[in-house]
Amino acid sequence: MDIYIKKAILHAFDPGNPEILFSPALMELTPVMLDYVTKKVEKIYSDEAKRGILSADNQFLNLITDDFLASTKAVANFWREAFVLSENQKQNDLLFVSYEIDTQPHFAFVRLSLRDSFSHAFDHSNGQIKIAKTESSLPGAGTAADEAIAINCATYAYHLIEKRIKYNGKSYHYISENLLCEQPEISVNKAIKAIKKTAESVAKSFDDDDFAFSQKVQNTVFHAVEKQENLSPEHLADQLFSDNLTAKLAFKDQVKEAIPNQIRFEQMPMDKIEKKLSNQKLSLSNGIEMSVPQTLYEDAESVEFIQNNDGTYSIIIKNIEEIKNKW
Asked: How many CB atoms lie within 10 A of CB 111?
């Protein structure tokens, strides 16, 4: 996914001040800052992101206009009205970015929670190297966003990373509930976990929940991700419970409660998702743990799983050319 950054600006929120400190000018996008901003935007397109499509009359969407600077101020003030209710507030910088993906205009808002950091400092008076504490430092470029929303201004589709805030003893997803007034789809990561949990629960009710079935679930999802196919409850049910109509119907009904629609992989970090699913991780009752690549797991010439007459299992690993000891 190629992201073309056009504009960026940073505003500051201090819970001790009644108003946001607005920057009067756009950020100078030096190569270092351009890299930082680009990586922060890329982190929004994560398998942890919730997704959805805003309606044309959505109150949050209507704050975003062709005037980028005015839009950032409007969104920042709107965000502050909800966030100031939270307990244990901290200093935050508010990063706003105007960018393009495949020539389509996008708008991103990223909350950057400031934190203390430490670095070394050279004392020229005595030649010592000391540890210096730096307050209110920005998070590194490679860290995930504390909270963020990225909106496609052409289609109104959005990606959302959000956290709960506490107010009056209750927790709220304040961005989706108060700012967007939307119920987004659950993240791809949570959807995959829900599929696995539901499939294993249904299989257990039919006495078919051994390790082989658990690996079958992961294998089915892995190949869908590998081909970048959308995952639907119907397709999964056919793959996992093809010979059991009752189990198939039960699985579809239960999955649709958590995932009403098919799982889409548009604008997702497919390499990272695929990497999470690429190894079958086995924990054996004798204390041995194994990590088997999917390609070898399905190859009987490499790994063979045998169920013995007494109900125990044997695993045969074949055609090994070299064994290394890893510490």
From this structure: 20
The domain containing residue 59 runs over which residues? 3-112+143-180
Contact 75, 96 (CB under 8 A): yes
Distance in angstroms (rounded) separating the CA atoms of residues 194 and 218:
12
Q: Enter the tokens of residue 245.
A: 């109509």
Identify whether residues 85 and 101 lie together within a single domain: yes
- Convert the pLDDT of each residue in 113-140 to its tens digit: 866 555 556 666 666 666 665 555 566 6
Q: Are residues 164 and 264 in the same domain?
A: no
Question: Maximum Cα–Cα distance for the chain, whole Å?
Answer: 80
Statement to judge: residues 42 and 161 lie in one domain = yes
Write out the two tokens for 8. 């960026």
pTM (whole model) above 0.70: yes
**Residue 266, SS3?**
coil
d(CA 93, CA 116): 14
> Exposure string (b/e) for 292-315, b if CB count within 10 Å is 16 or more?
bebeebeeeebbeeeeeeeeeeee
Residue 78 shares a structural domain with residue 97? yes
Give the tens place of pLDDT for each residue, 90-111. Answer: 788 899 999 999 899 999 999 9
The Cα–Cα gap between 114 and 117 comes to: 10
**Total Cβ atoms within 10 A of residue 18:** 8
95 lies in the same domain as 234? no
